[in-house]
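Quick bug: LuxR family two component transcriptional regulator output formatted oddly.
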Amino acid sequence: MTQDNTIHIAITDDHPMIIGGLRNMLSLYPHIRLGEAYTTAKALMDGLQQIQPDVLLLDIQLPDKNGDALVPVILRKYPAIRILALTNMDSMLYIHNMLRLGVSGYVSKNSDPDTVIRAIETVYKGEEFLEPALRARLEQFSFTMRKEAAMKPTLTLREKEILQLTVNGDTIQEIAQKLFIGLRTVEYYRSNLLLKLDVKNMAGLIKKAIRLGLAE
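Here's what came back:
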């Protein structure tokens, strides 16, 4: 806390009802002061130039920029800010990646007041906050990722090229034109990729390739 024993909070959420609800809830806790509230990423970045909170409650799905793009910018400019992701998103991959980017914790928009306060106090102290059920799921997801990484297939240079272009959204015809190879050759390589990554279709191939770090 600052010298006046108060944790200074800012909120960024595009739903005024969420901001209003949090403002009312936090007003019951004298050691927490909610100051600025923003509804867009642009408004947040403009506001942070003037004043930085101790803890930022951040909706990671804003209309003008998602959290995975916004968090690195905030922490690069203002490394002392603790970011507590405010979300209903349930994707373990996204949560895993956001923590790697520097988010200090996650709290659901449906959490009870005691959980929100505990989350704020925890991340303010420089610790990570995850509710027990979410932590258990994330640990299982991380275990699965490590297991899959250990079994990551070895790809040839041509397979890597075709995989990346596939992830980029290129069609078979576009890949063939860019790499100066025939359509059947592209189909052959994509069939090999399906087998190597043990998936049934292109959607599964793209998802797994990104998860394993084989493509961006």
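Actually, after a second look the formatting is fine. The beta strands are 7-12, 32-38, 55-59, 82-87, 105-108. Closing.
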